[in-house]
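name: query_chain
kind: protein
chains: 1
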Amino acid sequence: QVQLVESGGGLVQAGGSLRLSCAVSGRPISSYAMGWFRQAPGKERESVAVSWSSSITSYSDSVKGRFSISRDNAKNMVYLQMNSLKPEDTAVYYCNLDNVRLRAPWGKGTQVTVSS
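structure:
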């Protein structure tokens, strides 16, 4: 059973930075596309970044140029570097396998709050 534990969230002022971490257990991530997702109050969960491999990534338009996803396959970790944060980035952030058919039960996520 795959387990996901997100960490690194917090309260930050607009323009600030945070680095989120995701520890994955139960399956080596090296063969899988991994993603970061977020859910703001009253909104559906959305994908913000995908790591297809160590060198191939993609981003939603809302975070492109500000967020950077990375992975450490040896440690089974996925990271999200978030720069130039905006109040609209406020959400609970989750990681998971990108393929919906392979997706693990969602973790608790990590809260990111950006004040204006």
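note: The chain has no helices and ten strands.
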